[in-house]
Amino acid sequence: LNPPAGAVEGASTTIKTGRLPMPQIDFACKGQAWGAESADCLRAIAEQSGKHRERAVRMIANAAPLTSTPNVF
What is the mean pLDDT of residues 40-46? Predict the structure, then answer.
């Protein structure tokens, strides 16, 4: 194989640029478990899907943990 014209052996042939900006959804939802998203994360998901204008996104509160039942696995 012939190297491209003007290439210096051992030199990089591409120019490095800055990283792409982090998408809003990744920034808003970073580190959150599925099903436990914050309001900001849900808002970003709705805006990305385009459904935020058609209908409201509702959050459902978690049920209180059962304290009377032992954890048996």
Answer: 85
The encoded tokens of residue 25 equal: 């959804």
Verdict on whether the full-model pTM lies above 0.70: no
Q: How far is CA 71 from the centre of its chain?
A: 33
- What whole-number distance in Å separates Cα of residue 40 and Cα of residue 37? 8
Q: In angstroms, rounded to a whole number, what is the distance separating the alpha carbons of residues 13 and 5? A: 11
Report the C-alpha gap between 69 and 10 in whole angstroms: 66
d(CA 48, CA 37): 15
| Amino acid of residue 70 | P
